[in-house]
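Table S2 (continued). Query chain:
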Amino acid sequence: MAQHLSADHSRGDANTIGGYAAVHARPAAFEGSDGYSYSVEIVTDSVADGDAAWGAYLLFVQWARVGGTSPLGHLETEYLAWGDTEEEARGVVATLALGEVKQLLDARIAARQGTTPTRRWWDVMRDEREGEREQH
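Corresponding output:
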């Protein structure tokens, strides 16, 4: 069962991706330019890149439909930061503004589709309902 936790603004800047997760005790979520919902997480990997031991990027989990509980797929950015430690690499990405994160999501959606998509969630839902009617 889900529970509502009050935001704790003493934990960070809720306008950044890392601060949002700390303040709200959950990952940020966005509506993608394709009309689907996405949650986002900062991921780190050990990398063998001469100057840095760790790299950090964003992982966007695409949800099946608005309010859906099943993931449909995912998108990833390229490495956005590197550091000598996992915390250092993660810390750099954590400072990205939520608007910048949304732009990165929409850029990944456009790259996947080959164009800049313009569908909104209500268009997706309407198309799904029309497809169900045609099957009956």
